[in-house]
Amino acid sequence: MRKPLTIAMPKGRIFEEAAELMKQAGYDLLSNQEESRKLILEFPEQNLRIMMAKPMDVVTYVEYGTADIGIAGKDVLLEQDRDVYEVLDLGISPCYIAVAGLPNQPLSKIAPKIATKYPKVASDYFREQGEQIEIIPLNGSIEIAPLIGLADRIVDIVSTGRTLKENGLVEYEKIVGITSRLIVNPVSYRLKSKEIDEMVNQLSEVVGEDYV
Ligand SMILES: Nc1ncnc2c1ncn2[C@@H]1O[C@H](COP(=O)(O)OP(=O)(O)OP(=O)(O)O)[C@@H](O)[C@H]1O
Ligand SMILES: O=P(O)(O)OC[C@H]1O[C@H](OP(=O)(O)OP(=O)(O)O)[C@H](O)[C@@H]1O
Q: Within 25-161, where are the H helices?
């Protein structure tokens, strides 16, 4: 019996679009799974196993080879810089990472504080701008930080812009556009190349992107 091809699927906001893409590519395995509490799903007829992972953890499962393939936001890939192959831009869950803050507040010259869930992306960006900053790491509701004087700026995801607007914040700079990507474990890529190539080819046809 061959070992199943294991896919780490992100739970949460990417899930539905990712499951729909998989369905269009011929892998209709995930209908009604969002409501389920089961975390590992077996599909022996297709020789597939699906792991339902937190979006930030998908890359970890794929890097360690516990999943052969995964779907992860480019934001997570940029922040974590792991040893995985990024093979396809799926184009789903589009958003971008931006610098934002209270309006009309020039950035202080002396170590401005930047609150973010993306310390690496933020540090890389400000280093390129020649700015010395202090990172304030937060896990969510980042927009609170400038409102209460904890930070001068935030670096966070913007999608509709509604969260910034409703909290009286403005965008200062766009850092990078984000979509979800298909990632592959480098060893799996060699050992299971036939199954992986087949899945990536199907998905690339659906999304109309070249497989790199
Ligand atoms: N408005 C948005 N806010 C955050 N992430 C978004 C948004 N739009 C698209 N995304 C994408 O969705 C991914 C995050 O999904 P989700 O919010 O489910 O995860 P999470 O932030 O880890 O979850 P949680 O809020 O449970 O910690 C990001 O990595 C990003 O690529
Ligand atoms: O531009 P918008 O469409 O308003 O989306 C952006 C918001 O969505 C995300 O937060 P999320 O809902 O994941 O909550 P969090 O702050 O707990 O991460 C992100 O961190 C922004 O706060």
A: 58-63, 74-80, 119-128, 144-147
Is residue 34 domain-resident? yes
CA of 158 to the centre of ligand 2 (A): 7
Is 139 close to ligand 2, i.e. is its CB under 6 Å away? Answer: no
| pLDDT 10s digits, 99-151 | 999 999 999 889 999 999 999 999 999 999 999 999 999 999 999 999 999 99
Q: What is the CATH number of the domain that holds 89?
A: 3.40.190.10
Q: pTM for the full model?
A: 0.95
Do 165 and 119 sit in the same domain of this protein?
Answer: yes
Question: What ipTM, to 2 d.p.?
Answer: 0.96
Tokens of 82: 């792991």
Containing domain of residue 23, as a range?
5-93+179-207
User: Do the beta carbons of residue 142 and residue 117 sit within 8 Å?
Assistant: yes
